[in-house]
Specification:
Blueprint: H1 3-9, E1 13-14, E2 20-26, E3 30-32, E4 38-40, E5 43-50, E6 54-59, E7 63-71, E8 74-78, E9 85-89, E10 100-103, E11 109-113, E12 119-127, E13 136-137, H2 140-146, H3 151-156
Antiparallel strand pairs: 1-2, 2-5, 3-4, 5-12, 6-11, 6-13, 7-10, 7-12, 8-9, 8-11
Length: 162
Amino acid sequence: MTAQDIIRDLELLPHPEGGYYRETYRAADTLETAEGRTRNTSTAIYYLLENEDKSHFHRIKSDELWFFHQGQPLEIILLTPGQPTRITLGSDFANGELPQAVVPANTWFAAHLSHRAGYALVSCTVAPGFDFADFELAERATLTQEFPQCPELVEQFTKAVL
């Protein structure tokens, strides 16, 4: 099975942050956030990155759980005070790969294939549920100021402003 087979069979669409996705679940129950917004209690998506695809630095206002399904190892990079945190999703547990990981709410993060070849298919769940109103794609200049210790990483995982 190829990435293109999965994209076709799972009816994945291009995602604004990079890669491909399709929402698979949106809870009927809702709640009110601290900001007074109404959100579904949970959402889930399929997400696929292929070869040199990357999920550019972005953040959301909810915790996000990532679950590895198949393919090549996927590295998630979280920008935290000090040095970035790197988590590798995959099935080689003996070498530190994990089948799931949590990205805390309001954390800048990006993702890419560890070996930059093949594909990785994962699922992501968000609680409270995902809403594009809570999605922020990083601007290179702003992120460079906030994290001056990793300018190469910021440049690699942000889109250039034209």
